Amino acid sequence: MKRIYKYLLIAAALLPASACKEEWLERQPPNIILEEQVWNDSRMIVSLLANYYDRLPAHSQIDAGWQEFAAYDEAMWSGNDDARNNIVSYPFERWRLWDYSLIRDINLALENIEKYGVKLTPAQKTQFSAELRFLRAYQYFELVKRMGGVPLVTKQLIYDFSGNPSPLQLPRNKEEEVYDFIAAELDAIKDNLGNTGSNTRANKFTALALKSRAMLYAGSIAKYNNLLGAPITTPGGEVGIPAARAKDYYTKSLEASREIINTGGYSLYRSNPNLGENFYEALTKKVNNPEVILAKDFLTAKDKRHSFSYDNIARNVREDNLSSSNVTPVLNLVEAYEYLDGSSGELKTRTANNSDFIYYDKLSDIFNNKDARLYGTVIYPGTSFKGVEVQIQAGVMVWNGNAYQTVESNTLASNYTDGKLLTGASGPQRSQTEVSNTGFYLRKYIDPAPMSSTRGIRSDMWWVRFRLGEILLNAAEAAFELGQTADALTYVNRVRERAGFAPNSLKDLTLAKLQNERRVELAFEDHRVWDLMRWRQAHEVWNGSPNNTNAMMYALYPYRVVRPGDSRDGKYVFVKMVAPRFRAPRQFQLGNYYSSIDQNVINNNPKIVRNPFH
Amino acid sequence: MKTLAIPSFLLALTMLLAGCEKDNYEPPKSTLTGRVVYQNQPIGVRSNGVQLELWQRGYQLFTKIPVYVDQDGSFSASLFDGDYQLVRLRGNGPWVDNTDTIKVQVRGTATVEVPVQPYYVVKNEMIQKSGNAVTATAKIDPVVTSRAIERVTLYLGSTTIVDANNNAGTHNLTGTALADLSKTLSFSVTVPASLANKEYAFARIGVKTVGVAEMLYSPVQKVALK
């Protein structure tokens, strides 16, 4: 008995030893991924990069903030509230961005890939680091264009628990220093990026495209801020760039654009002989699109999708029973598209002496010979989407012997007493929501795929961040500012030729023409407000005055003429008006050029100086 | 059991009610009122445009209390009793930046005058109807000329709120018309159709300084149209 006891004791004493051999307490946790695992597995690094691409900030793009398309002078809001039609003045924090969490994550990644990435080849390490630095440069550009100079943090900041946090409190860098940092970073990494031919991950030409845009912004701020009666600056240069730097920045922008144009292998999309459809496809065709440089892609099959089409498709083409028609383009934008003979795009609704309407046989006739980009951007009366006519007619004009009486209906797709159409299935309506209030609908970025405007399926249309069309206009503007007008004309005329203009349609160039070209080519691509800001024109174009036709948003209502026995019976007339649901003229104040910095940021870091005017 | 249920329910109810009183803060009852003045005269501005800032130190939450100046130059705020700091926000009003802090003690009620140095002020303004137009004369008195004058405008409106953003008709003077400010300026606005049948309208004259977003206005005047 005593012996058995002894054996048992020995066996018991050995048990933990055998368990230790199996490392019972040192297994890999199945739900935690360690740094060593991430930085030695290229597939995990790619998924991490996907997360960072996804976190790039957006002001107005189709999957986030698209509502703000309706807050400037491209569109107004025809959905269920009036917030964007009644912006008394843009708040000072409107474009505020102080997102250092992405910067910190990228800085950490850059350090950890060096520290832990032992199994990666040096080439892989260089490429991933380059891509991370591209994303960091992109984020700094987003910060500087909203806030002016921000602290440049390029390594992780570690608190030493000494009770004194001042080493972590970095002051703001100068605005020009941030732009110089972006240029230097992009130059350093552009040849290491790889990803040749990709239009969803950064390659050499993506880096150059970002440089082209960022340097153009810096150049125009340097030039136009100093042309203001009182330039917007801070004593420390956190805001405001000296005028002497303008030439340097424009030159850098032009060089970057030229490299893309000459060696990038991109070309303007010209696959569809119908020029209007062609321009629509230039942004929406995801395969064999030689124009797109970088896009944020979506895929329904992987549940990466958005509701932009559900919310903004034309009313009578919608496939769901709710929403639609929220962002509706305004007449201001429609009239910015020139006629193909180069004349002003103003629509002709009245005779020259303003005594009578001009009568059109078809609804679309008033838009004949317009820039084809109008068709590709806006659904206007008499056109179709997904093969269905978007029925836009406000009502009828009945001749009573002396004058016209306007008859409109609150019922969509209703008939007048003569049995013919009174109000179209897509409105427009003066007060009803989720029907266009302006007489126009959005075409750009609306998904043509079946059922993509339903809540159940939604859309996987992509969002184009950079495309050759913009680069050509960047090049034209930079060349124009540098006095190389002949080159500028070549670039801008290439863009115009694709839109249906004759070759060399512009013979002389002004900044105003280039500005209008950007407005019509890049509408609904998150450019308008930033362009007006860098030209320092926003406070004049949107000055908050109800007498200013640029600050007020206009609508175009088509009517069918009811005048039996007259040759004008059955023809169409058009009425321009301030959009009925539009309330407050757009007002951009001097304090909006740089958004205000959150008081919490200043409280945490007293070295941060405030932006001017707030 | 039943006899116990009712008293305990009542007890719970009283506790809830008592709790409500304990949990809520009293709303601020003290008021601070004041005017933005130059030479003891209030400065007219655009309503909801110009802002002063109130700060209070000593609490964990340190964030500004914005105080908007009314169009007649007055302002008011409901506050708790305490010591506040009033700051003239840089580049915000039509006056020279002055970042000196004004200390304000609020005990019940308090009144404060905020002195400012405007760039230009409107003097001797006369606004009247003549024919189918509203005409005006005024003199612009340069106070601080470190910034140039950009524009002087007569605004006509249908309500007492008249400014650059709320008006029915305007007449702008710019450039050479403002070359000699010692002269009396004249304005004339044709009465717009929207006001033609009204008994009266309201008007005021505003002066815009280069690089300052907000304008300085004369007091609103009622103009009889009939």
TrEMBL record, chain A:
Main localization category: membrane
Keywords, alphabetical: Cell outer membrane, Membrane, Signal
InterPro entries found in the cross-reference section: SusD-like_N (IPR033985), SusD_RagB_dom (IPR012944), TPR-like_helical_dom_sf (IPR011990)
Domain RagB/SusD residue range list: 290-613
Protein localization: Cell outer membrane
Signal peptide residues on this chain, from the entry's feature table: 1-21
Domain of life: Bacteria
Residues in SusD-like N-terminal domain copies: 66-216
A Pfam family hit: SusD_RagB
Family, as annotated: Belongs to the SusD family.
Protein name: RagB/SusD family nutrient uptake outer membrane protein
Source species: Nibrella viscosa
Automatic annotation (TrEMBL), chain B:
The entry's keywords: Signal
Stretch forming the signal peptide: 1-18
Pfam families linked: DUF3823, DUF3823_C
Protein name according to UniProt: DUF3823 domain-containing protein
The organism of origin for this protein: Nibrella viscosa
UniProt KW Signal keyword: yes
PROSITE patterns per record: PROKAR_LIPOPROTEIN (PS51257)
Domain DUF3823: from-to ranges: 30-117, 120-222
